[in-house]
Amino acid sequence: MSRGEVTPQQALASAVERAEAQRSLNALISLNPLAQEQAQQVAARVEAGESLPLAGVPVVIKDNLNLRGTATTCGSRMLQAYVSPYTATSVQRLLAAGAVVVGKANMDEFAMGSSTETSAFGPTLNPWDTVRVPGGTSGGSAVSVAAGFVPISLGSDTGGSVRQPAAFTGVYGFKPTYGRVSRYGLVAHASSLDQVGPFARSAADLALVMDVIAGHDPLDATSLDAPTGFRDALRAGLPERPLRVGVVTQALEGNTPGVLAALERMRAALAGLGAQVEEVSLPGTEYAVAAYYLISTPEASSNLARYDGMAYGARAAAGDVNASMAAARAAGFGPEVKRRILMGTYALSSGYYDAYYSKAMRVRQLISQEFASAFERFDVLVTPTSPFPAFRFGERSGDPLAMYAADVDTVAISLAGVPALSVPMGTETVDGVALPVGIQLIAPTLHDARLIMLAAALEARGDVHLERPPLA
Ligand code: GLN
């Protein structure tokens, strides 16, 4: 595009065409009505000689990221008519770098779930096997990259929502260090955990998009002021000394044979790079799912208080103020969101706070300390991204605990705030169908670039599986 061989308008048209051809996957909630205009602006900037790192690159963003003048639904009936009055910092930075937003991706309602089945706009289908979920909550963003609509998309990851759908669809999914990417304009789920993260099909693309979206933002009070330089790091490559890698023993249990085989492939690949691979025990991670749901639901119950049908959400005409709010919430929220608000309110309530919320916060502290001490001995930790590949629609959606248990490999990392990358490591054949498996690489706080460098080194050896799903 920089050389003028393809125009941003052509790239956009091709992305829209692919998305339309795979409409049945239900990956997008809306196409961006401003996309043509954005493409024209980029074309003019390129013509004027501006050098743009993402000139004309079509991207998809999760529908909880605001783009001024377009709908942001969060996969909820509550926000069906909401039009963003401003643009999220991460999205603003993509646009400034020349990207064109093709559309807004389907997601679990308010980013609560692990399968994209809780969306008010219907589930997204996994392109590898359409009777299966794409993972969640950023299922639409994952599928947009896996099915080849766009090379890059953004999701959000509170407890695994970028990494797990990446694993289920066979692409990279990266959760940066908490605070690395601005949360300004990302609709809040659990503010102490929420991070924006990219999906991509190469380490080089991950570095490129991270260089664009990461970095300090005065509009987000938890934004970190730390250097970025992901592409520079990639050029410099991994250090000469052998990498010390720890495989987390707690994550070795309860996996399907295909996930264990993928973990073995990762071990062998890392050893092939000269890494010293050992095992490391992080006993606190066994309490991670319980602690995560006792920390994220109180935060969510506070954050979602604004959807009262007055400040935000569709107004319900019914009696007095309380009746009207109750009616708006009853009609606007789906069952999982209601469950979270009830759980979160309960965990914070007088008499239960000490037993639940405050205890969970102590577990969070313990988990953070365990990661910190493991990182005194290891450069990188490894676990599966999920103990199993994509499950079938309905397999877990009737049982909240079974759904929460699916987060067993991702939530401890979120509680510790450290960065993690899900790397596609091949497939497991289930009922005759090949399903992708992801393995998760974890680094210490602010060592995000190490994970992308490692992925690039694995890619160069041919160890990363970037096959496409079998689409018509
Ligand atoms: N599955 C987790 C939850 O439902 C994580 C969701 C997310 O990362 N947004 O809370």
UniProtKB/TrEMBL annotation:
Coiled coil: none annotated. It holds the Pfam family Amidase. Residues 12-451 form the Amidase domain. It is an enzyme of class 6 (ligase). GO terms for cellular component: glutamyl-tRNA(Gln) amidotransferase complex. It comes from the Bacteria. It catalyses: L-glutamyl-tRNA(Gln) + L-glutamine + ATP + H2O = L-glutaminyl-tRNA(Gln) + L-glutamate + ADP + phosphate + H(+). The keyword Kinase does not apply. Its EC number is 6.3.5.7. Keywords: ATP-binding, Ligase, Nucleotide-binding, Protein biosynthesis. One of its GO terms (molecular function) is glutaminyl-tRNA synthase (glutamine-hydrolyzing) activity. InterPro entries: Amidase, Amidase_dom, AS_sf, GatA. GO terms for biological process: translation. The active site is at residues 62, 161. Belongs to the amidase family. GatA subfamily. Allows the formation of correctly charged Gln-tRNA(Gln) through the transamidation of misacylated Glu-tRNA(Gln) in organisms which lack glutaminyl-tRNA synthetase. The reaction takes place in the presence of glutamine and ATP through an activated gamma-phospho-Glu-tRNA(Gln). Heterotrimer of A, B and C subunits. This is Glutamyl-tRNA(Gln) amidotransferase subunit A. It comes from Deinococcus aquiradiocola. The lineage of its organism: Bacteria, Thermotogati, Deinococcota, Deinococci, Deinococcales.
